[in-house]
Amino acid sequence: MNRSIGVCIILSIVTLGIYTLYWMYKINEESAQMSGEPEITSGGMLILLSIVTCSIYLIYWSYKMGERFERMRAQRGGQPGSLPVIYLLLALFGLEIVSLAMMQSEENTVVGAN
Q1: Which tens digit of pLDDT belongs to each residue from 34-76?
Q2: How many Å is the Cα radius of gyration of the chain?
Q3: CA separation (Å) from 78 to 37, 48, 72, 75?
Q4: How far apart are CA 61 and CA 108, in angstroms?
Q5: What ranges in the chain are assigned the alpha helix state H?
Q6: What is the pTM of this model?
């Protein structure tokens, strides 16, 4: 689904992070569907593991999502990049909202290409 990144960021701030959980859930589910790959983790399990591990699981998830988006980019004939490393570093420094925005941008590109 094509989402406005600005609106998602504003909703994440206004809801004090609750929308961020929903946004992660949707990106996880939709990217699995678009890529035709099995989910890394189900959306509900992603939220649960993120809460239980105090967001440590998000570091792993971010890296795996970067790998998925790289594969999706390659399927469209795009140039390989370093999304897994970028998402990993952003997650390590607590900038998950930036990596979510980048993931949404990649997802919007895939939706726009179809």
Answers
A1: 988 887 889 999 999 999 999 999 999 999 999 999 999 998 8
A2: 13
A3: 18, 34, 9, 7
A4: 19
A5: 5-14, 18-35, 43-52, 56-75, 83-92, 96-113
A6: 0.90
